[in-house]
Amino acid sequence: MRTPSLYSQDDPITAALKPSPTETDLERQERLEAEAEAKRISEQIDDDLKEERELLRRKKGDVKLLLLGQAESGKSTLQKQFQLMYKPSSIEQERASWTTVIYFNVVHSLKHILSILDNYDDSLEGADATGDETTPRKTNGTPESASPPSSILDEARNGALHIANLRRRLSPLVATDEQLANRLTGGITVSGSGKGSVYVRSGWQARTIESALGKMKKHRPSVEEERATRENLAQDPLVKEIGRMLQLCESDIQELWNHPTVKGLMAKRKLKLDEWSEFFLRHIDRVAAPDYVPTTDDILHARIQTMGVAEHTFDVNLHGKDVTWHLYDVGGARGQRHTWVPYFDDANAIIFVAPVSAFDQYLEEDPRTNRIDDSLQLFTQICSNALLKNVHLVLFLNKTDLLRAKLDKGLRVKK
Ligand SMILES: Nc1nc2c(ncn2[C@@H]2O[C@H](COP(=O)(O)OP(=O)(O)OP(=O)(O)O)[C@@H](O)[C@H]2O)c(=O)[nH]1
Ligand SMILES: [Mg+2]
Fold this sequence. Notes:
InterPro entries: Gprotein_alpha_su (IPR001019), GproteinA_insert (IPR011025), P-loop_NTPase (IPR027417). GTP binds at residues 300-306, 398-401. GO terms for molecular function: G protein-coupled receptor binding; G-protein beta/gamma-subunit complex binding; GTP binding; GTPase activity; metal ion binding. The chain is of the alpha/beta class. It is 51% helix and 11% strand. It contains 17 helices and 7 strands. Helix 5 (97-118) packs antiparallel against helix 7 (150-174). The longest helix is centred in the first third of the chain and has 35 residues, at 25-59. Bound molecules: guanosine-5'-triphosphate (GTP) and magnesium ion. Magnesium ion binds next to helix 3.
């Protein structure tokens, strides 16, 4: 059998360079050696170019900074804060695209609350759900709990009926969950990453706006165009429709959010809501208002998972010297961590983001693993990675506000 040649079989250049049918063994040997040498030289040129680019970057004093840490640790939020500090105009350019994420966060939270309520026996536990310890409890048919007073049963039935009505009225809004997810991901789903998570790739903000406009922008938009784009995004039929539904459902959302059963389940930690869920439900009057435009605080609270690695560049003036920072924001879920390694090579610094409030939480992608345990393991792996031995490492203990709130509520850290 012949050794495969570098030439492909059917393009004209291949035909011209094709070995002669009368090629001798010696000629063939020489040709293959010449091809191998050409390949080696071509690869060498590629390597040299890469090295040259790298040298140029280093010579210019560019800094390569990696943001690492588990999912939900706050890497993208930290990146947004860098963006606000060093490139505020880019936040303005993408402000409109965050509406889609925030609507998605609200719809997803409602879906989660309703699914927990679904598994909960409202008719019997409704009265107890206020968290009031003096109210009789259901205890598997023991004599003292066999027949709660009829007033309590009536109250529970009314509560259940109220929730059933809210569920019915909110169902068209909740049903938009998938469409919003598709709009954000461009139809790409990531399997094996927990409860149907939605991930976005680098540049999703521009793509969201483009798909809302139905065309690709070929140039950097002017201020005027940006304003028009923002207005256009509000005209995006999907965003517009969900905005309208939110407006119509605002009082239903308020009622559900303030319902004693929901509050009771939250108090008993049978219903656990993520911090962004609580934030947007608390501010639903603003989010559901007509012509809603996300505030910067809303953008910082919005939650969407990062897929792969997203590069952000910032020109920073440090002590009178201009330095370009290349910030790499990675996806932190377990299924995403393999994408980090190619960036270790020439990194200057790492900010490892560890959410200290997560002591009572478990990984979305592996509900048996405590998030602090995972964070510690990951940090240990990063510290012992040979590729990173000369890299500056910053440990960023994040979400201290949430830790304080949990401790103030009486939650205790257990080993
Ligand atoms: N209260 C509070 N919330 C925070 C803090 N830092 C981040 N968050 C919130 O935590 C959520 C998750 O943050 P992200 O920045 O998306 O997490 P990530 O590390 O990028 O997650 P992946 O992209 O999945 O790896 C967002 O809703 C943020 O608003 C903080 O210090 N305090
Ligand atoms: Mg992220």
